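step=encode ok
step=design start
structure_in=
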Protein backbone atom coordinates (compact mmCIF):
# COMPACT_ATOMS: atom_id res chain seq x y z
CA UNK A 1 0.00 0.00 0.00
CA UNK A 2 1.56 3.29 -1.13
CA UNK A 3 -0.43 6.12 0.32
CA UNK A 4 0.99 9.46 -0.75
CA UNK A 5 0.01 12.42 1.45
CA UNK A 6 1.87 14.66 -0.99
CA UNK A 7 -0.53 13.68 -3.75
CA UNK A 8 -3.47 14.73 -1.56
CA UNK A 9 -1.94 18.19 -1.46
CA UNK A 10 -0.87 18.20 -5.11
CA UNK A 11 -4.40 17.41 -6.30
CA UNK A 12 -5.92 20.40 -4.49
CA UNK A 13 -5.22 22.94 -7.29
CA UNK A 14 -6.94 20.60 -9.77
CA UNK A 15 -9.94 20.18 -7.47
CA UNK A 16 -10.14 23.88 -6.74
CA UNK A 17 -10.65 24.42 -10.47
CA UNK A 18 -13.18 21.61 -10.50
CA UNK A 19 -14.95 23.10 -7.49
CA UNK A 20 -15.47 26.35 -9.38
CA UNK A 21 -17.02 24.55 -12.34
CA UNK A 22 -19.16 22.39 -10.05
CA UNK A 23 -20.55 25.40 -8.20
CA UNK A 24 -21.04 27.46 -11.34
CA UNK A 25 -22.90 24.70 -13.18
CA UNK A 26 -25.04 23.92 -10.13
CA UNK A 27 -26.00 27.54 -9.43
CA UNK A 28 -26.78 28.40 -13.06
CA UNK A 29 -28.43 25.05 -13.81
CA UNK A 30 -30.66 25.07 -10.73
CA UNK A 31 -31.51 28.77 -11.16
CA UNK A 32 -32.71 28.17 -14.71
CA UNK A 33 -34.30 24.93 -13.51
CA UNK A 34 -36.31 26.96 -10.98
CA UNK A 35 -37.77 29.06 -13.77
CA UNK A 36 -38.53 26.00 -15.88
CA UNK A 37 -39.89 24.10 -12.87
CA UNK A 38 -42.14 26.95 -11.78
CA UNK A 39 -43.60 27.33 -15.27
CA UNK A 40 -44.18 23.61 -15.79
CA UNK A 41 -45.34 23.09 -12.18
CA UNK A 42 -48.05 25.70 -12.65
CA UNK A 43 -48.85 24.27 -16.10
CA UNK A 44 -49.51 20.90 -14.43
CA UNK A 45 -52.10 22.61 -12.25
CA UNK A 46 -53.82 24.29 -15.19
CA UNK A 47 -57.44 23.45 -15.91
CA UNK A 48 -56.59 23.25 -19.62
CA UNK A 49 -55.95 19.57 -20.34
CA UNK A 50 -53.57 20.25 -23.26
CA UNK A 51 -51.35 22.50 -21.14
CA UNK A 52 -51.29 20.11 -18.17
CA UNK A 53 -50.57 17.17 -20.50
CA UNK A 54 -47.59 18.94 -22.10
CA UNK A 55 -46.17 19.64 -18.63
CA UNK A 56 -46.82 16.06 -17.51
CA UNK A 57 -45.00 14.65 -20.56
CA UNK A 58 -41.95 16.82 -19.88
CA UNK A 59 -41.83 15.79 -16.21
CA UNK A 60 -42.34 12.09 -16.87
CA UNK A 61 -39.83 11.91 -19.73
CA UNK A 62 -37.08 13.59 -17.72
CA UNK A 63 -37.81 11.71 -14.50
CA UNK A 64 -38.17 8.42 -16.35
CA UNK A 65 -34.76 8.49 -18.04
CA UNK A 66 -31.29 8.34 -16.45
CA UNK A 67 -29.38 11.59 -16.26
CA UNK A 68 -26.42 9.96 -18.00
CA UNK A 69 -28.63 9.06 -20.98
CA UNK A 70 -29.90 12.65 -21.09
CA UNK A 71 -26.32 13.93 -21.11
CA UNK A 72 -25.29 11.71 -24.03
CA UNK A 73 -28.54 12.42 -25.91
CA UNK A 74 -28.22 16.20 -25.67
CA UNK A 75 -24.45 16.46 -26.08
CA UNK A 76 -23.89 13.80 -28.75
CA UNK A 77 -27.29 12.78 -30.14
CA UNK A 78 -28.98 16.10 -30.86
CA UNK A 79 -25.88 17.80 -32.38
CA UNK A 80 -25.32 14.73 -34.54
CA UNK A 81 -28.88 14.94 -35.85
CA UNK A 82 -28.85 18.67 -36.51
CA UNK A 83 -25.24 18.88 -37.65
CA UNK A 84 -23.46 21.09 -35.15
CA UNK A 85 -21.23 20.64 -32.12
CA UNK A 86 -22.01 21.96 -28.67
CA UNK A 87 -19.51 23.11 -26.07
CA UNK A 88 -19.44 20.65 -23.17
CA UNK A 89 -19.95 23.37 -20.56
CA UNK A 90 -22.98 24.76 -22.39
CA UNK A 91 -24.36 21.24 -22.59
CA UNK A 92 -23.83 20.90 -18.84
CA UNK A 93 -25.82 24.04 -18.09
CA UNK A 94 -28.68 23.01 -20.36
CA UNK A 95 -28.86 19.42 -19.14
CA UNK A 96 -28.82 20.32 -15.45
CA UNK A 97 -31.46 23.02 -16.01
CA UNK A 98 -33.77 20.64 -17.88
CA UNK A 99 -33.22 17.80 -15.41
CA UNK A 100 -33.64 19.84 -12.22
CA UNK A 101 -36.57 21.71 -13.79
CA UNK A 102 -38.61 18.51 -14.00
CA UNK A 103 -38.11 17.70 -10.33
CA UNK A 104 -38.70 21.31 -9.27
CA UNK A 105 -41.94 21.26 -11.28
CA UNK A 106 -43.17 18.45 -9.05
CA UNK A 107 -42.04 20.37 -5.96
CA UNK A 108 -44.02 23.42 -7.14
CA UNK A 109 -47.09 21.34 -7.97
CA UNK A 110 -46.97 19.57 -4.61
CA UNK A 111 -46.40 22.82 -2.73
CA UNK A 112 -49.38 24.58 -4.28
CA UNK A 113 -51.63 21.56 -3.85
CA UNK A 114 -50.64 21.32 -0.17
CA UNK A 115 -52.21 24.68 0.56
CA UNK A 116 -55.72 24.24 1.93
CA UNK A 117 -58.37 24.82 -0.74
CA UNK A 118 -60.22 26.98 1.76
CA UNK A 119 -57.48 29.57 1.25
CA UNK A 120 -58.51 29.88 -2.40
CA UNK A 121 -62.14 30.31 -1.44
CA UNK A 122 -61.12 32.90 1.18
CA UNK A 123 -59.29 34.89 -1.50
CA UNK A 124 -62.29 34.80 -3.79
CA UNK A 125 -64.57 35.89 -0.97
CA UNK A 126 -62.34 38.93 -0.46
CA UNK A 127 -62.92 39.92 -4.07
CA UNK A 128 -59.50 38.85 -5.37
CA UNK A 129 -59.22 37.35 -8.84
CA UNK A 130 -57.38 34.10 -9.56
CA UNK A 131 -54.00 35.75 -10.14
CA UNK A 132 -54.26 37.92 -7.01
CA UNK A 133 -55.30 34.95 -4.89
CA UNK A 134 -52.33 32.96 -6.13
CA UNK A 135 -49.93 35.92 -5.76
CA UNK A 136 -50.91 37.10 -2.30
CA UNK A 137 -52.43 34.06 -0.53
CA UNK A 138 -51.53 30.70 -2.11
CA UNK A 139 -47.97 31.33 -3.34
CA UNK A 140 -46.45 32.66 -0.05
CA UNK A 141 -47.74 29.59 1.82
CA UNK A 142 -46.68 27.22 -0.94
CA UNK A 143 -43.13 28.61 -1.03
CA UNK A 144 -42.67 27.77 2.66
CA UNK A 145 -43.69 24.19 1.92
CA UNK A 146 -41.39 24.03 -1.12
CA UNK A 147 -38.18 25.17 0.59
CA UNK A 148 -37.14 21.83 2.23
CA UNK A 149 -37.61 19.69 -0.93
CA UNK A 150 -36.00 22.42 -3.02
CA UNK A 151 -32.95 22.30 -0.74
CA UNK A 152 -32.77 18.53 -1.23
CA UNK A 153 -32.98 19.01 -5.00
CA UNK A 154 -30.11 21.51 -4.89
CA UNK A 155 -27.88 18.96 -3.12
CA UNK A 156 -28.91 16.24 -5.59
CA UNK A 157 -28.13 18.50 -8.56
CA UNK A 158 -24.79 19.42 -7.00
CA UNK A 159 -23.82 15.73 -6.87
CA UNK A 160 -25.30 15.08 -10.33
CA UNK A 161 -22.73 17.42 -11.88
CA UNK A 162 -20.20 14.59 -11.40
CA UNK A 163 -21.79 12.79 -14.37
CA UNK A 164 -20.76 15.67 -16.63
CA UNK A 165 -17.19 14.33 -16.44
CA UNK A 166 -18.30 11.87 -19.12
CA UNK A 167 -18.43 14.72 -21.65
CA UNK A 168 -15.24 16.39 -20.37
CA UNK A 169 -16.78 19.21 -18.34
CA UNK A 170 -14.02 20.33 -15.98
CA UNK A 171 -15.83 19.65 -12.70
CA UNK A 172 -14.41 17.75 -9.72
CA UNK A 173 -14.41 14.20 -11.09
CA UNK A 174 -12.94 15.31 -14.42
CA UNK A 175 -10.13 17.17 -12.66
CA UNK A 176 -9.40 14.10 -10.52
CA UNK A 177 -9.24 11.99 -13.68
CA UNK A 178 -6.73 14.40 -15.19
CA UNK A 179 -4.58 14.27 -12.06
CA UNK A 180 -4.78 10.47 -11.89
CA UNK A 181 -3.74 10.16 -15.53
CA UNK A 182 -0.53 12.03 -14.72
CA UNK A 183 0.32 10.51 -11.32
CA UNK A 184 -1.60 7.19 -11.10
CA UNK A 185 -2.50 8.19 -7.52
CA UNK A 186 -6.17 7.33 -7.85
CA UNK A 187 -6.84 6.68 -4.16
CA UNK A 188 -5.58 10.08 -3.08
CA UNK A 189 -7.36 11.92 -5.91
CA UNK A 190 -10.79 10.36 -5.43
CA UNK A 191 -10.50 10.46 -1.62
CA UNK A 192 -10.03 14.22 -1.92
CA UNK A 193 -12.95 14.45 -4.37
CA UNK A 194 -15.20 12.81 -1.75
CA UNK A 195 -13.85 15.22 0.86
CA UNK A 196 -14.59 18.21 -1.37
CA UNK A 197 -18.16 17.02 -1.93
CA UNK A 198 -18.69 16.50 1.81
CA UNK A 199 -17.37 19.99 2.53
CA UNK A 200 -20.12 21.29 0.24
CA UNK A 201 -23.01 18.98 1.08
CA UNK A 202 -22.73 18.79 4.90
CA UNK A 203 -23.04 22.57 5.45
CA UNK A 204 -25.86 22.63 2.90
CA UNK A 205 -27.67 19.84 4.78
CA UNK A 206 -27.18 21.59 8.13
CA UNK A 207 -28.47 24.85 6.67
CA UNK A 208 -31.46 22.97 5.26
CA UNK A 209 -32.30 21.44 8.67
CA UNK A 210 -31.92 24.84 10.31
CA UNK A 211 -34.32 26.34 7.75
CA UNK A 212 -36.82 23.52 8.29
CA UNK A 213 -36.80 24.10 12.07
CA UNK A 214 -37.31 27.83 11.54
CA UNK A 215 -40.22 27.14 9.22
CA UNK A 216 -41.80 24.71 11.69
CA UNK A 217 -41.68 27.36 14.42
CA UNK A 218 -43.02 30.16 12.19
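sequence_out=
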Amino acid sequence: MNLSPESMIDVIPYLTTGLWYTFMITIVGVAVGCVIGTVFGLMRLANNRLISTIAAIYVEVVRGTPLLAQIFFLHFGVPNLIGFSMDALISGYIILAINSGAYIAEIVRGGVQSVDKGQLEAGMSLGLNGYQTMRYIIWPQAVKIMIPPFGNQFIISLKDTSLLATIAVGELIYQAQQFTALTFDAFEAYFMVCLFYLVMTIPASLFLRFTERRLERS
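step=design ok
step=annotate ok -> The mean pLDDT is 91.
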